[in-house]
Amino acid sequence: MTDYDVLRVFCGPRGEYGNELGVVREGSVLPERDDRQTFAAKLGFSETVFVDDPERGFIDIYTPGARLPFAGHPCVGAAWLLDIPELVTPAGVVGTRLDGEFTWIEARPEWAGPRTLRRYATAAEVDALPVPPPGEWLYAWAWEDEAAGRVRARGFPGRGDGVEEDEATGAAALQLTARLGRALNIIQGKGSQLLTAPQPEGWTELGGRVLLEH
Questions:
Q1: Which candidate, 1, 25, 172, 183, has a CA 20 to 30 Å from the CA of 107?
Q2: Of 159, 192, 160, 158, which is closest to residue 173 (Cα–Cα)?
Q3: What span, in angstroms and rounded, lies between the C-alpha atoms of 49 and 9?
Q4: In angstroms, rounded to a whole number, what is the distance separating the alpha carbons of residues 13 and 86?
Q5: Is 43 helix (H, G, I), strand (E, B) or coil?
Q6: pLDDT tens-digit profile of 174-189?
């Protein structure tokens, strides 16, 4: 059995919730993409990361059904685990920093795959949504406090790969931040917390708490 760590990324303030992430620290044990895809499907997390060079930050990201050029919660988790200034993904170089209890990355929203960002009138409407049928990647959101930048959100990948709802979706948070043009404090899923802030020249910072589960 390949050794791997499980992190929870974008935890709440007391360490609760967060989106589970599988991390294979020695990516060389599974060098082939097909084997990595099979392993990611077996784990069943929304994403699994393979670290190909821990010193230079080269990582490779998979959902249970596809390889991704970039994803938010895997990059935040890998940034916390590796504690290096940058990560290298197929989409581009991701800046990283650790600041107290939060781990931050800086990335470009356009690196993320297409998602439907659908606004609802109230947080209660978002809470009441059933899981939609497979099809589009739906990011449902509503203001909890617009003046304060507080957002309630849920993410439904719609891929038909067994992940019906994503507990915390960094890429969608980047895209929503770019659309709204302001810093956000997002509560997603059961209670995961994501923080964002626009940066110059189209970059966006994304931060959250990370814990090692096992």
A1: 25
A2: 192
A3: 13
A4: 25
A5: helix
A6: 999 999 999 999 999 9
